[in-house]
């Protein structure tokens, strides 16, 4: 069952996606599958998994990730990787990227796009020189902490999410919504840093890795509040997705001028 010699953990938020790809995950990873669907999962995939847990289908992948951290905490190895049941739509080189961990930062984005097939982001932005991992496809997106919009193109979906969050919390235009969300989730130090900046960085599809020693720094009460937020309005799940890298220590960008 699973891999007894593993040094990293892979947490998979599964719904109905085929999971045969899990059999190609390097043996250096313990695999944790959280299933929110009713689709069949093969005996071979279940045998490869160190953890297989059924969850009710609420809270998007944020609930899945937070459930893992609250139940099991960070792994005993070096990295924990977080991924969707089908990571390849967002991260076409995902399996190959798992073998590059020696070069990862403490918080490592592992995705390339939202949906390349529909031009999100536009093809002009998805060129080899844009990748932060030579020979593989990894690209982070810069976005406004005040509007939720990416800096380089117009994302109507993100615009709607930002508007929905402002309406839900009755916030005026110009408020740093990401700082508001972080403070609401009892991450005041990170919220203060966000308040002092204008730009954040995110990894599409909530596909990323974090060293376990940085995961350990997140207070349990904050994990609980984040999970409660994910159970609430749908917009909260999207805010978790946009802010994961910063929750685990990624720096914000473009400081406010005095």
Q: DSSP strand (E) fraction?
A: 15-25%
Separation, N- and C-terminal Cα atoms: 57 Å
Task: Characterize the largest beta sheet: strand count, sense, and whether it forms a barrel.
Answer: 6 strands, mixed
Looking across the biggest beta sheet, what order are the strands in?
A: 3-2-1-4-8-5
State the helix count.
Answer: 9
Instruction: Return Rg in Å.
Output: 18 Å
Helices and strands, in N-to-C order? EEHEHEHEEHHHEEHHHE
Low-confidence segments: none
- Helix fraction bin: 25-40%
* Global shape: globular
Number of strands: 9
Query: Average pLDDT across residues?
Result: 94
In total, the number of domains comes to 1
Structural class: alpha/beta
Structure, explained:
With 258 residues, the chain is α/β, with parallel strands linked by helices. The chain has one domain (8-255). 32% of the residues lie in helices and 17% in strands. The chain contains nine helices and nine strands. The strands form two sheets. The protein has a six-stranded mixed sheet. Strands 6-7-9 form a three-stranded antiparallel sheet, covered by helices on one side. Helix 2 runs antiparallel to helix 8 and helix 5 packs antiparallel against helix 6 (188-195). The protein is globular and about 50 Å long.
């Amino acid at each position: 069952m699973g891999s007894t010699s593993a040094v990293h953990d892979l947490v998979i938020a599964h719904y109905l996606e085929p999971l045969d790809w899990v059999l190609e995950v390097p043996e250096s990873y313990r695999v944790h599958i959280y299933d929110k669907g009713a689709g069949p999962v093969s005996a071979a995939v279940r045998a490869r998994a160190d953890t297989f847990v059924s969850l009710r289908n609420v809270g998007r992948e944020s609930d899945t990730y937070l459930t893992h951290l609250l139940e099991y905490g960070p792994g005993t190895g070096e990295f924990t990787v977080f991924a969707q049941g089908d990571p390849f739509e967002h991260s076409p080189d995902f399996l190959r990227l798992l073998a590059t961990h020696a070069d990862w930062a403490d918080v490592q984005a592992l995705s390339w796009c939202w949906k390349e097939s529909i031009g999100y982001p536009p093809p002009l932005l998805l060129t080899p020189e844009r990748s932060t991992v030579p020979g593989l496809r990894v690209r982070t997106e810069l976005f406004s902490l005040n509007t939720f919009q990416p800096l380089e193109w117009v994302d109507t979906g993100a615009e709607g999410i930002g508007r929905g969050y402002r309406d839900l919390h009755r916030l005026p235009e110009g408020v740093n919504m990401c700082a508001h969300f972080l403070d609401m989730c009892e991450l005041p130090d990170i919220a203060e840093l966000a308040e002092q900046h204008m730009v954040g960085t995110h990894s599409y599809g909530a596909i990323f890795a974090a060293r376990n020693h940085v995961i350990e720094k997140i207070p349990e009460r904050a994990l609980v509040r984040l999970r409660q937020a994910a159970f609430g309005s749908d917009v909260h799940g999207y805010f978790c997705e946009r802010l994961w890298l910063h929750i685990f220590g990624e720096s914000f960008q473009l400081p406010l001028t005095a």
